[in-house]
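Researcher: I'd like a structural prediction for the single chain below. Treat it as a standalone chain; there are no partners to consider.
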Amino acid sequence: MTGKISALDLGQGELSEATKTYFAKCEEKLGLVPNVLRAYAFDDRKLRAFTDMYNDLMLGESGLSKLEREMIAVAVSSINHCYYCLTAHGAAVRQLSGDPALGEMIVMNFRAADLSPRQTAMLEFAVKLTQEPAKIVEADRAALRQAGFTDRDIWDIASTAAFFNMSNRVAAAIDMRPNDEYHAMAR
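Model: Treating it as a single chain, here is the predicted structure.
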């Protein structure tokens, strides 16, 4: 990691034992502590709230695969031009899919990627929710059901897209920078 994590100088208090343990687990599993976690580490409560929601959405039980959730993160982050999330979650898409080009394809134009009709419907919904949330109508939910998603899956698609819209805005506001290691992952 080089340079600052973000444009803000919030300092960092003493990390709680739970946070130290969580960071050690990240090092063990990922080989790094994601800068987004370091950015939130100035306030243990904010970090915990962020990680609890993230872990529930991205790693918890769902009808969506981990790859599909990462694809939503990339598609939403592409619309929002979020450098941090495109870099970090693009790496996750490459890793989970085994396709070194898929992350970039979703960044540039997911409609040109070789996706299943299910995945295309999911990303169409996530992108519309990002660009025009007030224009989501029953026909949009019906298209997801037609593609095989349950109502619970629709909740998960919407929640994942909404979480990354929030995260993208925070990352943009503070100029959050991705870990350098993400650029080389799964290439």
